[in-house]
Amino acid sequence: MTTITLGRYLWERVYQIGVRTIFGVPGDFNLQPLDYIYHVDNLRWVGNQNELNAAYAADGYARIKGVPGVLVTTHGVGELSALNGVAGALSE
Fold it and tell me: GO MF terms on file (predicted)?
């Protein structure tokens, strides 16, 4: 029986649904899960300047590629900014 870490499993599943690019802002609380992105071949990380930009990038990616947009942020006030981008994506 083989085992797989939770972080690796998460990104493998994201890759299996067709996502190839993860957008977001790295921070103290998400650095370990982000490391596992590089364990999945052909999955890449695109760092953004702030959470709102990351949300817009994930929205644009989803619209162009026809797959879910994936956004990763860290704990803090940036989450409120990211929610503005997510709400904007859902309003159209």
Answer: metal ion binding; pyruvate decarboxylase activity; thiamine pyrophosphate binding
Q: Cβ(71)–Cβ(54) under 8 Å? A: yes
Report the distance separating Cα 76 and Cα 92, nearest Å.
27
Burial class (CB in 10 A: 0-12, 13-18, 19+), 91: exposed
CATH number of residue 50's parent domain: 3.40.50.970
Residue 1 lies in a domain: no
3-state secondary structure string, 36-60?
HHHHCCCCEEEECCCHHHHHHHHHH
The pLDDT tens digits for 60-73 are 999 999 999 999 99
